């Protein structure tokens, strides 16, 4: 099994575990596994109270940052979150990460794919600038294919213009 | 598949650009699509004559498909069978023009269907100009397997449409698209193909990975698409006859999408994202050689060739917001062609070379529009919460696109509209569907 598929298995497993990250399902199913993949991974993200757990990273450090309309620049809030992600990744070298770039539904499919790539790259570059080894990071754009919130107004769009740092066991790619 | 039945003299169509949108009585039977037809031309298609016992049901069904094709253009209005005064029981019998004139039919299509012992279908048809009291063009005969009866019906309708409008037909064509199921935040997508009218849907992929924006080859034998099969967007080509598929560009650390064939069918132009930047590349399918066409820090995507293969229209945000540009097919200096307010995307060159269709976003609405290839005469054809991704009918006179409704229950559907902005209609597909791509006219 390749590293990529391992990553995806973990993502899919989290989807099945269905803990506090409902959005994981979207990414997991989009990434190439059908429903039911990785069912043995229940609870893999551990307890949020364990600072070395994926759950802690996702919830306490914060796995995502948000972007303004059409933008890929990182806000101060985003930088603070990413500083935390970089520290955590350096403290936990046994994980690699895939950075997903997402866009809201305002925009064409093609443009949003390119925009998601810009956003994911902005996060990747920032994490590298904070000391994370480039070999531990990959990027993928989902464009507008995987919204987190499904209403069609700004309150949802703001949540969908995001990058999500998805952890996977494995030191690098 | 086609042969001339009888060398009947074709009716002269008169001046090529007859201004009358609808036939003036006694004038030539002619619809000029560019003029924006206001009143559809009334026509009748009585059930075709079954010339063998096995053909009875097909004779009825084929006439219905011919009528649906014509009425579906919005250019024609069918006079229903219950209003007919005359019955056509013998294909060779003379037409009683007065009976058709009395119900205001201006065009009449008659036909006959035979099925032989091996299931082979033969369909003959004639088109009549009722007011001229004369056939319009030769009678024709089509043959095929009876399983393909819808295609034969579409071929008949294409002939009728072409003779009356002077444009090429488009009914005997297929559409490849993305069939969607599931909630908006976990949508499952499958490649699918169907007849242009929504019939004969077949799936070309399972729902295990996201698939996007399929595109036909110029001969309709292959389909390009983007899939997340590896976890990352990559372009693939699918051979429709064999079902074989292969990835076209697999460089680690890159994403590829928005592929489209060159008119020669041997090259593919697409977007490649690397390091957050998206540019246009060309891939030679034979040699696998990749050529970079643009080098800019902006987003360059949604490329589409001119029909002569010499130019590419694409979308770029190099000016700050997405606009449309045209450049030589080998790359080089690009000329901006869109200058209106709003954002322009997904340009597609008409197969006739006369227009570029596009998606426009302005003041919170989406539009499908067309403009001349130099950017002049911009015309918006639709307006909704989200319209995008136009694709041209083979004759360059009709556009199909995705329309998505708003909200948590929002879902995409396929719509079509003609280039004058008339005849907006939903393409009847079961379930949600997006990203249509129209094939060329089938052989």
Automatic annotation (TrEMBL), chain A:
Keyword Signal applies: yes
GO biological process: cell division
InterPro entries, per the entry: Bact_OuterMem_StrucFunc, OMP_bac, OmpA-like, OMPA-like_CS, OmpA-like_sf, Pal, Pal_lipo_C
Cell location: Cell outer membrane
Keyword Hydrolase: no
Superkingdom, taxonomy of origin: Bacteria
Pfam family, one: OmpA
PROSITE patterns, per database record: OMPA_1 (PS01068), OMPA_2 (PS51123), PROKAR_LIPOPROTEIN (PS51257)
UniProt GO cellular component terms: cell outer membrane
Membrane topology annotation: Lipid-anchor
Keywords: Cell cycle, Cell division, Cell outer membrane, Lipoprotein, Membrane, Palmitate, Signal
Domain annotation OmpA-like: ranges: 54-171
Function in brief: Part of the Tol-Pal system, which plays a role in outer membrane invagination during cell division and is important for maintaining outer membrane integrity.
Quaternary structure, from the entry: The Tol-Pal system is composed of five core proteins: the inner membrane proteins TolA, TolQ and TolR, the periplasmic protein TolB and the outer membrane protein Pal. They form a network linking the inner and outer membranes and the peptidoglycan layer.
PANTHER family: LIPOPROTEIN YIAD-RELATED (PTHR30329:SF21), STATOR ELEMENT OF FLAGELLAR MOTOR COMPLEX (PTHR30329)
NCBIfam families per UniProt: Pal_lipo
Family listed: Belongs to the Pal lipoprotein family.
The protein, known as: Peptidoglycan-associated lipoprotein
Provenance organism: Rhodovulum strictum
Lineage: Bacteria, Pseudomonadati, Pseudomonadota, Alphaproteobacteria, Rhodobacterales
TrEMBL record, chain B:
Annotated Gene Ontology cellular component terms: periplasmic space
Domain TolB N-terminal: 29-134
Keyword annotations: Cell cycle, Cell division, Periplasm, Signal
Intracellular or extracellular location(s): Periplasm
Coiled coil: none
GO biological process, alphabetically ordered: cell division; protein import
Signal peptide per UniProt: 1-24
Principal cellular location given in the protein's record: periplasm
Keyword Cell division part of the UniProt annotation: yes
Pfam families the UniProt entry points to: PD40, TolB_N
Subunit structure: The Tol-Pal system is composed of five core proteins: the inner membrane proteins TolA, TolQ and TolR, the periplasmic protein TolB and the outer membrane protein Pal. They form a network linking the inner and outer membranes and the peptidoglycan layer.
HAMAP family hit by this protein: TolB
Function as written in the Swiss-Prot or TrEMBL entry: Part of the Tol-Pal system, which plays a role in outer membrane invagination during cell division and is important for maintaining outer membrane integrity.
UniProt similarity note: Belongs to the TolB family.
Name the UniProt record assigns to this protein: Tol-Pal system protein TolB
Organism per entry: Rhodovulum strictum
Encoding gene, per UniProt annotation: tolB
């Amino acid at each position: 099994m390749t590293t990529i598929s391992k990553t995806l298995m973990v993502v899919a497993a989290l989807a099945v575990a269905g803990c506090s990250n409902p959005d994981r399902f979207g990414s997991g199913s989009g990434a190439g596994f059908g429903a039911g993949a990785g069912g043995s991974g229940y609870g893999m993200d551990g307890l949020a109270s364990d600072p070395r757990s994926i759950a802690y990273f996702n919830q306490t450090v914060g796995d995502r940052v948000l972007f303004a309309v059409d933008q890929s620049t990182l806000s101060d809030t985003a930088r603070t979150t990413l500083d935390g992600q970089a520290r955590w990744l350096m403290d936990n070298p046994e994980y690699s990460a895939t950075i997903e770039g997402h866009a809201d539904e305002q925009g064409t499919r093609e443009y949003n794919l390119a925009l998601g790539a810009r956003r994911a790259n902005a996060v990747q570059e920032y994490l590298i600038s904070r000391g994370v080894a480039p070999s531990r990071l990959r990027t993928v754009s989902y464009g507008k294919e995987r919204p987190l919130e499904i209403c069609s107004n700004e309150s949802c769009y703001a949540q969908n213009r995001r990058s999500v740092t998805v952890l996977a066991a494995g030191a690098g790619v | 598949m086609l042969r001339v039945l009888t060398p009947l003299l074709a009716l002269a169509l008169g001046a090529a650009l007859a201004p009358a949108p609808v036939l003036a009585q006694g004038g030539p039977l002619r619809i000029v699509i560019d003029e924006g037809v206001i009143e559809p031309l009334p026509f009748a298609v009585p059930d075709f004559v079954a010339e063998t016992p096995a053909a009875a049901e097909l004779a009825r069904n084929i006439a219905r498909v011919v009528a649906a094709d014509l009425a579906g253009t919005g250019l024609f209005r069918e006079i229903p069978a219950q209003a007919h005064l005359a019955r056509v029981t013998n294909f060779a019998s003379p037409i009683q023009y007065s009976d058709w004139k009395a119900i205001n039919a201006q065009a009449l299509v008659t036909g006959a269907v035979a099925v032989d012992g091996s299931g082979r279908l033969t369909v003959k048809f004639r088109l009549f100009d009722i007011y001229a009291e004369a056939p319009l063009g030769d009678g024709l005969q089509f043959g095929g397997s009876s399983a393909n009866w819808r295609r034969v019906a579409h071929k008949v309708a294409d002939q009728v449409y072409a003779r009356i409008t002077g444009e090429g037909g488009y009914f005997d064509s297929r559409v490849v698209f993305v069939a969607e199921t599931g909630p908006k935040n976990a949508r499952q997508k499958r490649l699918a193909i169907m007849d242009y009218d929504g019939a004969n849907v077949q799936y070309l992929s399972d729902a295990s990975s996201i698939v996007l924006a399929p595109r036909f080859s110029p001969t309709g034998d292959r389909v390009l698409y983007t899939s997340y099969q590896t976890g990352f967007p990559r372009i693939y080509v699918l051979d429709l006859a064999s079902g074989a598929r292969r990835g076209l560009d697999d460089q680690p650390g890159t994403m590829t999408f928005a592929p489209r064939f060159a008119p020669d069918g041997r090259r593919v132009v697409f977007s490649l994202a690397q390091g957050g930047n998206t540019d246009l590349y060309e891939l030679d399918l034979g040699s696998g050689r990749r050529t970079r066409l643009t080098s800019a820090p902006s987003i360059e995507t949604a490329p589409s060739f001119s029909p002569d293969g010499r130019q590419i229209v694409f979308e770029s945000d190099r000016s700050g917001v997405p606009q449309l540009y045209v450049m030589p097919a080998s790359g080089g200096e690009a000329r901006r062609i869109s200058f209106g307010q709003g954002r322009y995307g997904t340009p597609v060159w008409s197969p006739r070379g006369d227009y570029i269709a596009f998606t426009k976003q302005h003041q919170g609405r989406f539009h499908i529009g067309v403009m001349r290839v130099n950017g002049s005469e911009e015309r918006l054809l639709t307006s909704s919460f989200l319209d995008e991704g136009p694709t041209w009918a083979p004759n360059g006179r009709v556009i199909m696109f995705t329309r998505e409704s708003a909200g948590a229950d929002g879902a995409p559907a396929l719509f079509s509209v003609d280039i004058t902005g008339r005849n907006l209609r939903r393409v009847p597909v079961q379930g949600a569907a997006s990203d249509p791509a129209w094939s060329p006219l089938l052989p």
